Amino acid sequence: MDKKRPVTPRSSKQYHRNQGLETMELPLFPLNVVLFPGMVLPLHIFEHRYREMIARCIDEKRPFGVVLVEKGQEIGEAATPHMIGTVARIVRVERLDDGRMNITTVGTERFRVKQFHHTHSYLTGTVEHYPVLNASTKLAEDLAHKIRPRILEYVELLAKSSNSELDLERLPEDPLTLAFLVGIALQVDNEHKQKLLALPGIPEMLAREQYILSREILLLRHMINTQAEVEEMTGGPTGYVFPNKFIGINHNKGGAMHAARRLYCGDSSKIVDMVSLILVGPFDNQQNICYYLAY
Fold this sequence. Notes:
Helix content is 38%, strand content 24%. It is an alpha+beta fold and 295 residues long.
């Protein structure tokens, strides 16, 4: 058995033309995560079907597709995924002695599934490129200008709410990269992120992100202002939080209120680690290609 060794394969796209559309056969990995273009996604590969899939991708120097699970589970029986996902390019592989692998991938471009196939132990699909529209329009530039201070405020409030140091030193200049960056950074549930990923153009994406940021900032401010009161009401070995005046403000399933519940239950480390990875790491390490697209 091989010792642990890093591998840095290059991806290749095997496209064919079909009725004027650029399509390809792509191995698909249903996960409980939304991969955006430019986002770094580390994965631990242990199921045999995915060992087979990733081994094929490495050998053939080809990418695979990440799709959010819509119904079912990541592990075990086949899950039903969403139809829009992102191509993942493998940039690093660590092989373990027992056959498992740790891989690092980067999202490159969006795709839409035309048809699923069940001819292998893992899911595959015929997919078509899902282009990003209107990224260079004046509307996109205007919306990008408006959202920049909001994302900076959002990061500052996340840092304050978790008693951590988060510093977003610079933001992308172009609206396309900025839109994907905000999508990555937002601490909302996967269904909200999937809706962002599926929007056809950058103006629509930035407008929706502006709305979500405004809501999340309001909730984070309220959470911070009531934190002392909530901590006084917290008791018991599990850190149970009694209902108080801020519970129920956020009627969706994710976002700041979900983060607040975890924070007040004494488990802020997950929030800090997640945000640090997303917002600090890429800008502190020149070799981390987290936010910059690989088109």
